[in-house]
Predict the structure.
Amino acid sequence: MTTLYNFGAGPGMLPPQILQQASMALVDWQGSGLSILELNHRSDAFRQLLADAEQNLRELLTIPKHYHILFLAGGASAQFAMVPLNLLGQQLEADYIQTGYWSKQAIREARRYAKINIAGESRPHEPMTVVPTPQEWILSPNAAYVHYTANETVDGLEFHQAPLFEQIPVVTDMTSNFLSAAVDIERFGLIYAGAQKNIGPAGMTVVIVRDDLLTRAHPLTPTLYRYQSQVEQHSCINTPPIFNCYVAGLMFAWVKAQGGINAMAQKNESNAKKIYAVIDASQGFYRNTLHPSCRSRSNIVFHLPTAHLEQEFLIQVKAAGLVNLAGHRSHGGIRASLYNAMPTTGVDVLVQFLRQFLQQKG
Ligand SMILES: *Cc1c(COP(=O)(O)O)cnc(C)c1O
């Protein structure tokens, strides 16, 4: 097999050794004679597996005791409803920051439950787009919480600084930059991250929720979707996504073994820089119109001068073993996603390709 580098935005690349370990566990998990898929979720072995995963995640992100960690079935999009259902309490309003594709999805769903105030919006700031800094957010006194998308996977925008507000719980969708850099957990009321970008197989979401926010759920919230019920049952009210939990645990251990969050952050930062440097030096051949202060380190989006050149780029880059570089169907163009599993060699091959293509066609 030739080495392929998967630059897809999600499901994202996973480290080859984890794929190997997981594939062996499908046949025989830890010499038990049973597949991981057959592991009983009420067994001590599974309880231990989940406790280890949680402990590793707690260490990686220095998550304090008054925050609960949940491993929930359902994608990140399920949180678009679970957040308002659980956090509105008696309030009828919530603040949302609108910066792109995924925040708009979250807003659309939240509007089913509450009056949504757009407390800040990204601005096509000629010639570059910027996100509204937390200092610029206009929070409303009646909002139950403020929600923002820490990394806009489709648009390639990222908040590089976590907001610091005492008066209102901050909720964030970290699906595409979870575990990519350190975060100050105590600035947040709730963090959620769908697994398929940086944690493992699709269909599971990690939720980190502060203890005092558990008692506000709307009475009609289904039991499975109540954070408090899930906390009480350690994410095991019903059969949890066992395989997803298993792979997430492997990923947390892998990140630790790589040197932890800071090692990941350094690698991701320097790899993203290399690609942006080629874009910026290409004199408009590769075009990214986002301000450097909010360019994503996880998803690098750019356009070429014509759609025809973009098609040619995608064909040639694939032939070079670099796959899934097409932009999101709503945006077109090119998107290179650099999740934790992307090795520096993959990025170096892409950088070399970008230079060659520019030389040929620029
Ligand atoms: C991928 C993604 C989602 C959607 O995840 P699903 O698991 O498909 O629901 C939500 N938010 C962000 C930021 C994403 O990148």
About this structure: The CA atoms of residues 131 and 230 lie 34 Å apart. The mean pLDDT is 96. The chain has nine helices and 15 strands. The longest helix spans residues 260-280.
